[in-house]
Specification:
about 35% strand, two-stranded antiparallel ribbon, 6 strands, four-stranded parallel sheet, Rossmann fold, alpha/beta, 3 helices, globular, single chain
């Protein structure tokens, strides 16, 4: 395992699942708190960063990632709350849902995107959140 990915944990109950799945791809992982310093991330020389989901809302006063991660020149993947933070911080719109979305859902992914290379277009995913990204701008690219 020569490549290493940093997983920034936002309190997700599934951070260990993300960790295990990435390790199953023969990629070393390190779980760090979302508040980890940019210097610590630079020291790790990670090939990519994953910002996990979590129980919070972008509208609460939550601990944030260092926005300098986008200057490290590595891909950053936001999952659930991680994606919501990325969208919100770049000027996108995140709406509070009238009711939570919890359960398994079927989605279609763009298999031409490097992130989903080798996967089938139809994927079953687990959703468990109360906010939803409605509009993205700036740094955020949605590849679903």
């Amino acid at each position: 395992m020569s490549e290493e990915v940093a997983i920034l944990d936002c309190g997700a109950q599934y951070a260990k699942v993300i960790d295990r799945r990435v390790r199953e791809l023969n990629i070393k992982t390190t779980i760090l708190p979302v508040s980890v310093s940019l210097d610590k991330l630079k020291e790790g020389q990670y090939k990519a960063i994953i910002i996990s989901g979590g129980p919070e809302s972008v509208y609460n006063n939550v601990i944030q990632y260092d926005k300098g991660i986008f200057d490290l020149g590595v891909p950053v993947l936001g999952i659930c709350f991680g994606m919501q933070m990325m969208a919100f911080n770049s000027g996108g719109l995140v709406e509070k849902k009238t009711q939570r979305e919890d359960g398994q859902f079927n989605i279609k992914v763009d298999t031409t995107a490097l992130l989903f290379a080798g996967m089938t277009e139809n994927q079953e995913v687990l959703l468990t959140h109360g906010d939803s990204v409605v509009q993205v701008v700036g740094l955020v690219i949605v590849v679903l």
